[in-house]
Amino acid sequence: MSDLRAFRPLVPGTQPEYDADVYGSTKFRAPKQQLLQVPTSLTEATGPQFSPSRYPSIIDISKVESGEAQGQRIVVEGQVTDEDGRPVPHTMIEIWQANSTGRYHHDGDQHDAPLDPHFQGAGRVFTDENGMYRYISIKPGAYPWRNHHNAWRPNHIHYSLFGPGFATRLITQMYFDGDPLLKYDPIYMCIADAGSRERLVAGFDLDLTMPEWALGYRFNIVLRGRNATPFEDSNDHGDH
Amino acid sequence: MSITTASQTIGPYWHLLPFEGWNDLTRFGATGDVITITGRITDGTGAAAGDCCVEIWQPRPEVENFDGFGRAATDKDGGFSFTTLRPEPVPGVHGRLGNVQQAPHVGLTIMARGLMKALQTRIYFEGDAGHDQDPVLNLIEDPARRATLVAKKTGAAAYHLDIVLQGAGETVFFAI
Known about the structure:
The complex is a heterodimer of chains A (about 240) and B (about 180).
Chain A: E1 36-37, H1 42-45, E2 63-64, E3 67-68, E4 73-82, E5 92-97, E6 122-126, E7 132-138, E8 143-145, E9 151-153, E10 156-161, E11 170-176, H2 186-189, H3 194-198, E12 201-204, E13 215-218, E14 221-223
Parallel strand pairs in A: 4-13, 4-14, 11-12
Antiparallel strand pairs in A: 2-3, 4-7, 5-6, 5-10, 8-9, 10-11, 12-13
Chain B: E1 34-42, E2 53-57, E3 69-73, E4 79-85, E5 105-111, E6 119-125, H1 143-146, E7 150-155, E8 158-164, E9 174-175
Parallel strand pairs in B: 1-8, 6-7
Antiparallel strand pairs in B: 1-4, 2-3, 2-5, 5-6, 7-8
């Protein structure tokens, strides 16, 4: 039996706006019309479910068959919960990132930094029954982009999550504690609420750190929570 | 209460994620009434949006080996295509709109450089019954705007939808 309860509205200011002047690519892509508030039905309350049998895990992306990637090896662990603190079990997380020099293994990336033949830069993990996930990678490098003069993206790892419903789809980026580039980055800074920005920053964690092998970072993720009853539309709050 | 993690753009390098072949929802062996859905995405200048990640989700039909999920990349002309099973009517919406059956549709998610959050909407299909009674289509008063969600029938089992991110003819996008 599908859970048909609607998802609660997002807290104002905690998500970026589509229209973000400081990020140039939004100029002709951000919609100008107000979004249509739609009630939640089966299509929105449910979503694709993935199984490791069809979507096998790729947990250690710090090496390929032919060798190990250059750079600082890291282990990233965290928990995926909903807004009520309930673990989101068995959900798929996709990650992708630049190599240690700040270059993506992607034809579109022409940054003058070396590619690493031992680093592809994409992984896939599933949360366990407690919502916990873990993967191994190398710390991505910062890289320049042309948004404005002397623009550099902070070190970051891209995340893709689906959660339990179509309405819980989330694309985000994990940053690293203490990165001096964060305050200059329009993609990070265009989230109005400081607390919501800071929650995108993974903390260094000595307990996760593996002696003589890899630095540990913790990054928890919160997906939207559901209303208490199936008959309560997010529409009925009327405060968007 | 915790606060939902903030969205960030998918950026221009999301193609490191797998997508080749993921636009065929029958790839795990599902059989049935197969249709193709093509589309083209343009921006506020009319230029092709050639680096989008496009995903569809359909909870129906419920048949073996059918996940109801597909992913495609737009090409340099902004085009994408999916092969899937023809969606069926979906049970209605709870709450104030009553339990009216919804016309066949797929949920559509667009993620791209320049989009700080995913855009979500639906694709309906020209020629299907029930559009006049559909509780979501009926939220859109302007017939021209409503038409932005209805894919044109281009063949016996083929449909096409032009999607405009911004400006004249802008597609209706949803807050869910």
